[in-house]
């Protein structure tokens, strides 16, 4: 009998143990939902979920979705399974992707470190197994100043969903570019990115100085501040949907601006 506690909601299984201070997650299907609950999942190297019979949970899930043969082929090519959000307990299929060993190591030392702090910007990457498309989702907890040629209204961006196809490494490069621009001067430059579709929302105006926001999140302003750690992907988003939504609202003038990016 398993020592884990399992809860299932939709296609996600939540795996717990009394001694854990976290809840692990994985994607389930009818063909293996009983098997995954028939064993006890522990931690290997104090990080990765593991069972002596079924192996590592992330490897188990990838084999169920991509097949044993493809997983072996990728391993022979020196690819590893990357947890896109760098949370090893998140073994949902939309968080797992093949990535070359060299890029995986570089990501762990650079991007994953830069993306740890979510108080200002919550950026997450996903892969849709059915479409093979990627998404970058961003909640700017502290709004980003919009940098866009030809748009002359000082504006900030609060939310962005970006859709990608092709190589995961290209998605990583854009994610790194977004983080670099934001951490340098709190800006967002969508024209520089290589997405194939987008959903972006913002408003006319300027953000409060970072020092003011810092006082709020530190509690020194007498008020508590809630911020997003991550936002989920847009469901059923494919190339045919042609979202291309970029709207900057102007509450003072009771109007807004629909922007179309050149892609």
What does this structure look like?
The chain is 24% helix and 33% strand. It has helices at residues 33-37, 57-66, 68-76, 101-109, 111-114, 168-185, 210-218; strands at residues 5-9, 12-16, 24-27, 42-44, 48-51, 55-56, 79-83, 90-91, 96-100, 121-128, 133-146, 155-164, 187-188, 197-204, 245-250, 255-258. The strands form 4 sheets. Strands 10, 11, 12, 13, 14, 15 and 16 form a 7-stranded mixed beta sheet that branches. The chain has a 4-stranded mixed beta sheet with strand order 1-2-3-8. A hairpin with a 2-residue loop joins strand 1 (5-9) and strand 2.
Show the helix and strand layout.
Blueprint: E1 5-9, E2 12-16, E3 24-27, H1 33-37, E4 42-44, E5 48-51, E6 55-56, H2 57-66, H3 68-76, E7 79-83, E8 90-91, E9 96-100, H4 101-109, H5 111-114, E10 121-128, E11 133-146, E12 155-164, H6 168-185, E13 187-188, E14 197-204, H7 210-218, E15 245-250, E16 255-258
Parallel strand pairs: 3-8, 11-13, 14-15
Antiparallel strand pairs: 1-2, 2-3, 4-5, 5-6, 7-9, 10-11, 11-12, 12-14, 15-16
Order of helices and strands: EEEHEEEHHEEEHHEEEHEEHEE
Radius of gyration: 20 Å
- Kindly estimate the percentage of residues that lie in beta strands according to DSSP: 25-35%
Helix % is 10-25%
Rounded average pLDDT: 95
How many alpha or pi helices? 7
Outline the biggest β-sheet.
7 strands, mixed
Keywords:
alpha+beta; 4-stranded mixed sheet; 7 helices; single chain; globular; 263 residues; 7-stranded mixed sheet
């Amino acid at each position: 009998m398993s020592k884990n506690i399992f809860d299932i909601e939709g296609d996600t299984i939540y795996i717990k143990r009394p001694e854990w201070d976290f809840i692990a997650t994985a994607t389930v299907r009818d063909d293996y939902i009983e098997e995954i609950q028939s064993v006890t999942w522990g931690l290997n190297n104090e990080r990765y979920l593991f069972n002596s019979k079924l192996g590592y949970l992330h490897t188990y899930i990838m084999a169920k979705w991509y097949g044993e043969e493809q997983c072996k082929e990728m391993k022979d090519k020196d690819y590893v399974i990357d947890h896109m959000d760098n949370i090893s307990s998140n073994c949902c299929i939309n968080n797992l992707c093949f990535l070359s060993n060299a890029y995986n190591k570089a990501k762990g030392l650079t991007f994953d470190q830069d993306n740890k702090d979510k108080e200002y910007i919550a950026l997450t990457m996903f892969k849709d197994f059915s479409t093979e498309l990627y998404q970058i989702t961003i909640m700017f907890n502290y709004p980003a100043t919009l940098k866009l040629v030809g748009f002359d209204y000082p504006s900030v961006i609060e939310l962005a969903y970006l859709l990608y196809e092709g190589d995961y490494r290209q998605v990583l490069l854009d994610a790194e570019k977004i983080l670099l621009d934001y951490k340098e001067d709190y800006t967002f430059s969508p024209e520089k990115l290589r997405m194939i579709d987008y959903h972006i929302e913002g408003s006319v105006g300027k953000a409060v100085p970072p020092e003011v926001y810092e006082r709020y999140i530190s509690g020194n302003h007498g008020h508590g501040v809630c911020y997003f750690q991550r936002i989920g992907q847009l469901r059923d988003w494919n190339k045919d949907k042609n979202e291309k939504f970029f709207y900057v609202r102007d509450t003072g003038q009771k109007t807004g601006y629909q922007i179309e990016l050149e892609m």
